[in-house]
Amino acid sequence: MTEPGVLPAWVMQQVANLSRKIQKIESLRVLKARSERSHLAPDSQHIQDAIDRVLFHYFGLSVQDATYINTRLREML
Predict the structure, then answer these.
(1) Cα distance between residue 28 and residue 30, in whole Å
(2) Which residues contact 47 (CB under 8 A, 6 or more apart)?
(3) Cβ 58 vs Cβ 5: under 8 Å
(4) CA within 13 Å, CB half, 26
(5) What is the pLDDT of residues 9-22, one digit of tens each?
(6) Whole-structure pTM value
(7) Among 12, 27, 36, 51, which residue's CB has the most CB atoms within a 10 Å radius?
(8) By the 8 A CB rule, do 1 and 34 touch?
């Protein structure tokens, strides 16, 4: 385990790869309403959830912290 906030290079590379997958999925979407932009496509959201879990882990956040952050983000959007 690395110190909190430090991601190994291989983890950063995988996060970058997953981010590119999200970008590809999202670039194919046709958004009719402006409000649709605040939510990812379901396939993208699954990938984003995985990225979030990895980042929360490496930044030393607890499950409770992650739940709070996700709840607040949903409320804001």
Answers:
(1) 7
(2) 18, 21, 22, 25
(3) yes
(4) 16
(5) 999 999 999 999 99
(6) 0.82
(7) 51
(8) no
